């Protein structure tokens, strides 16, 4: 298992733990011997001095054994918890680096299960290995030696009971092991439904779909329970049979020992010690079976974690990181989403966005506007043609360097729980208070922020639930502005603003952000008519480009859009 490299830094604990375990095992093995001595020499011969002496010794051994046992636990926890922590860190990092298509393929629910439950399984597995493997092995061997040292004929009993027990366990484990991967898969399904519903809680309520969603959840949940129960039922068969084997061997020891005692060759204490050793030996074998169980679980989880760790991000940057970006050029760009071959989103697109330009992309829903933006930020790669920035193919750019220079305001504003100021600062952690205020003013957000009870320190509920759509959009815009990007992209991000606020926002941006390249995606002509150029996107192709006045004169498509939007209520004069 490749994941063991995560244990390497903690090898010290991982070795110290079984070492201290040796103390506990030795104590456990020694105690029955002392007990038999106590009975044979102390109880049967009524010698109080020996009773006390041996009793004290046993007490001391119990204490020492307990101490080394708990040290072993501590070391094992140190090793396994740190192991899990490092592993979680790496899996999380890798999950964050995946491109959207890869995240979609894993599903969010599954990624969550992998990050939580699978890692916990691995942690249990490591802990079990460290603690139990050595313990059971030592106990098994030590127990057999001690038992034979009492009376070699007891070996016969072990010779019968041990193979029987091993066979039984092998059968049970063989039946249970394949189910563990299934359990994890079903857990994925539960998490998926849960995650979708937590995210879409409002929608579910609005459409009164709680019952259907609860039913969907119940199904996933029942499936999980089913599989878990199947595992449990299989494992449950073990214990009664093991207990029969155990008791039969106790009877056999009593019988053999009894015969010996009657012949005067053995004492009662020895029989008791033999029973004790026998129990410990069989018990250690059972521990090994439990360990195999957690190995099986760990294997299933390790495979799922490796899948994440070994997924190379589909979108990888180069190492070109220029100071400024330059003109962005689409050359014969064609695009469809991965897995949606045949559903062309963009086709034969040629477009140049010059530095400092204020350009608009106008089109109906589904025209491909957002997809075009996704290509500029390299959330996806073009499927035909290429995009160059400053003459260099976009693939050559370092991803961080590229995205650092771009700020995108998405139509659906994502806010985080925290204060208003924190949410804006998210765009640029180094922003000063003054810069945050300035950004809020340009974004036309200052007014409503100052009306909030604690101004910029007011806490926003999760996902901005306490704000209106327009307020959220303006905060998202402020967050983009504070980044001082070279390229600012508004993807339908003023759709929830009234026209007069939008107009003020556009004027403020034009005054304050001279030199910034601005791409405005919109459906309303009113939002874009002041832009230097307007590119009209229709079903993924560029049907016209020019200023508002030019297009009004030359483009029938634009004229048609204009007519329909003015007819709808004179929206153009924002
Ligand atoms: N993640 C996706 N996977 C597959 N198809 C998508 C995805 N996102 C958008 N599409 C499809 O791409 C087309 C263009 O979508 P989009 O670029 O969002 O349009 P717009 O932003 O102009 O409304 C639509 O037909 C949509 O169904
Ligand atoms: Mg869109």
Largest sheet: 6 strands, mixed
Q: What ranges have pLDDT less than 50 throughout 5 or more consecutive residues? A: none
With strands numbered from the N-terminus, the spatial order across the biggest sheet is: 6-9-10-3-11-12
CATH class of the largest domain: Mainly Alpha
Report the portion of residues in β strands. Answer: 5-15%
When the domains are counted, the total is 3
Q: What fold name stands as the CATH topology of the largest domain?
A: ABC transporter transmembrane region fold
Determine the CATH superfamily of the largest domain.
ABC transporter type 1, transmembrane domain
Calculate the terminal CA-CA distance, rounded to whole Å: 64 Å
What bound compounds does this protein have? adenosine-5'-diphosphate, magnesium ion
Which of globular, elongated, flat, extended, rod-shaped describes the shape? elongated
Q: Give the C-alpha Rg.
A: 36 Å
The strand count comes to: 12
| Helical residues, percent | 55-70%
CATH architecture of the largest domain: Up-down Bundle
How many DSSP helices? 19
Class based on secondary structure composition and strand pairing: alpha/beta
The overall pLDDT average reads 90
Question: Could you please describe the fold and organization of this structure?
Answer:
It is elongated, with a radius of gyration of 36 Å. It folds into three domains: 254 residues, ABC transporter type 1, transmembrane domain (ABC transporter transmembrane region fold, Up-down Bundle); 176 residues, Rossmann fold (3-Layer(aba) Sandwich); 71 residues, Rossmann fold. It is 64% helix and 10% strand. The protein has a six-stranded mixed beta sheet, with helices on both faces. A four-stranded antiparallel beta sheet has the order 2-1-4-5, with helices on one face. It is built from 19 helices and twelve strands. The structure holds adenosine-5'-diphosphate (ADP) and magnesium ion. The site of magnesium ion (MG) has 5 residues, from α10.
């Amino acid at each position: 298992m490749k994941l063991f490299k995560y244990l390497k830094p903690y090898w010290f604990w991982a070795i110290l733990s079984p070492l201290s375990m040796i103390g506990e095992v030795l104590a456990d093995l020694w105690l029955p011997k002392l007990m038999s001595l106590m009975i044979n020499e102390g109880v049967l011969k009524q010698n109080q001095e020996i009773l006390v002496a041996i009793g004290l010794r046993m007490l001391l051994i119990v204490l020492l054994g307990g101490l080394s046992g708990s040290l072993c636990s501590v070391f094992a926890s140190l090793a396994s918890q740190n192991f899990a922590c490092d592993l979680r860190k790496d899996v999380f990092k890798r999950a964050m680096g995946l491109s959207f298509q890869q995240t979609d393929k894993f599903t969010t629910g599954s990624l969550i299960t992998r990050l939580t439950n699978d890692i916990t399984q691995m942690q249990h597995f490591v802990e079990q290995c460290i603690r139990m493997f050595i313990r059971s092995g030592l106990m098994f061997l030590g127990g057999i030696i001690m038992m034979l040292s009492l009376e070699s004929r007891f070996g016969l009993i072990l010779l019968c009971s041990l193979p029987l027990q091993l066979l039984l366990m092998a059968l049970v484990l063989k039946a249970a092991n394949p189910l563990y991967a299934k359990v994890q898969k079903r857990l994925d399904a539960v998490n998926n439904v849960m995650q979708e519903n937590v995210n879409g809680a409002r929608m579910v309520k609005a459409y009164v779909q709680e019952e259907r969603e609860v039913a969907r959840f119940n199904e996933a949940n029942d499936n999980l329970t089913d599989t878990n129960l199947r595992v449990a039922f299989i494992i449950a068969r073990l214990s009664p049979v093991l207990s029969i084997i155990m008791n039969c061997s106790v009877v056999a020891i009593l019988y053999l020992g009894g015969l010996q005692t009657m012949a005067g060759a053995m004492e009662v204490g020895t029989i008791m010690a033999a029973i004790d050793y026998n129990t410990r030996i069989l018990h250690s074998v059972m521990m090994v079976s439990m360990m195999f169980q957690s190995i099986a679980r760990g294997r299933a989880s390790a495979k799922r974690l490796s899948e994440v760790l070994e997924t190379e991000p589909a979108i990888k940057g180069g190492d070109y990181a220029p100071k400024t970006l330059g003109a962005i050029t689409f050359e014969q760009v064609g695009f469809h989403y991965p897995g949606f071959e045949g559903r062309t989103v963009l086709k034969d697109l040629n477009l140049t966005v010059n530095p400092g330009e204020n350009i608009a992309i106008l089109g109906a829903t589904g025209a491909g506007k957002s997809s075009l933006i996704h290509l500029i930020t390299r959330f996806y790669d073009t499927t035909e043609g290429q995009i160059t920035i400053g003459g260099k193919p976009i693939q050559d750019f370092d991803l961080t360097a590229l995205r650092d220079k771009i700020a995108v305001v998405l139509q659906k504003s994502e806010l985080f729980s925290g204060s208003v100021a924190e949410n804006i600062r998210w765009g640029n952690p180094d922003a000063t208070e003054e810069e945050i205020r300035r950004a809020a003013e340009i974004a036309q957000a200052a007014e409503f922020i100052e009306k909030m009870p604690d101004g910029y320190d007011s806490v926003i509920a999760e996902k901005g639930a306490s704000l209106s759509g327009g307020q959220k959009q303006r905060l998202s815009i402020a967050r983009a502005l504070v980044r001082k990007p070279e390229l600012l992209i508004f993807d339908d991000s003023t759709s929830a603003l009234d026209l007069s606020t939008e107009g003020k926002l556009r004027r403020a941006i034009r005054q304050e952000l001279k030199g910034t390249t601005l791409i405005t995606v919109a459906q309303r002509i009113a939002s874009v008519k002041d832009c230097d150029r307007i590119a009209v996107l229709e079903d993924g192709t560029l049907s016209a480009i020019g200023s508002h006045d030019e297009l009004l004169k030359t483009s029938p498509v634009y004229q048609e859009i204009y007519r329909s939007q003015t007819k709808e209520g004179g929206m153009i004069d924002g």
